[in-house]
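User: I'm new to structure prediction. If I give you an amino acid sequence, what do you actually give back? Let's try with this one:
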Amino acid sequence: MKKLFTILAAIMVAMLALTGCGGTDQKAAQDTKVLKVGATAVPHAEILEQVKDDLAKEGIDLQIVEFSDYVQPNLATNDKELDANYFQHIPYLDNFVEEHPEVKLVNAGGIHIEPMGIYSKKVKELKDLAEGASVAIPNDPTNGGRALALLEKAGLIKLKDGVGIKATVQDIVDNPKNLKVQELEAAQVPRTLDDVDAAVINSNFAMQVQLNPVKDSLIIEDASSPYVNIVAVRTGDENRPEIQALMKALKSDKVKKFIEEKYAGAVVATF
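Assistant: Good question. You get back a string of structure tokens that encode the predicted 3D arrangement of the chain. For your 271 residues, that looks like this:
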């Protein structure tokens, strides 16, 4: 009888222990906060991948949702389908909010710059572009203006004084080679390289088609570019603990080292 009591007691202790473990696991699962961040694949999603384990240790389940365009991530963040997004620079966000007054997004912090470059499969130097050559550029307002500014820096066109990043093709006041500027969605520009004489491409999209911005571009923005890529969140969410943890993780020495080694100058950390 004593032996039976001992066995029953041992079973009860084991069951209580298992229940306790299950309760602990359940509590840990309940305490975990999901943080959904929209990003374009390269380099944003790759950079976010570097901090998933660090955030998991703080009870944050970072879920990366990839996008291939520049519109849906902002709309999804504003509609609370995402908690944040990481794909755009400050001028793009400012312009987007201006054009979509219902969107209430703010800059939670800058992470890196992706220098924009001019590429060509037809010429090795921009001075060799022929009369009437075709040049593809992004069609969104800020990246379009940025591309035109780079074409001006390369000496291919002259823009109206004072237009800055809001420049459009209508602001070209001098075009010595009579370049034919074709405006396309930013993600589509790299795919036109076989068909146009040159293209002005964002570095993230250039890398997606195996172009090395440092080695393959004919001219590229330098590190003084104002187009810092940021994490954007809904107004007021920049102070959420999960967002603060994300920003701290992204601005770590670990991420800076990853950017330097992975992208070799094609992406430049700004922290």
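You can read the tokens as a compact description of the fold. Here is one thing that stands out. The longest strand covers residues 105-113.
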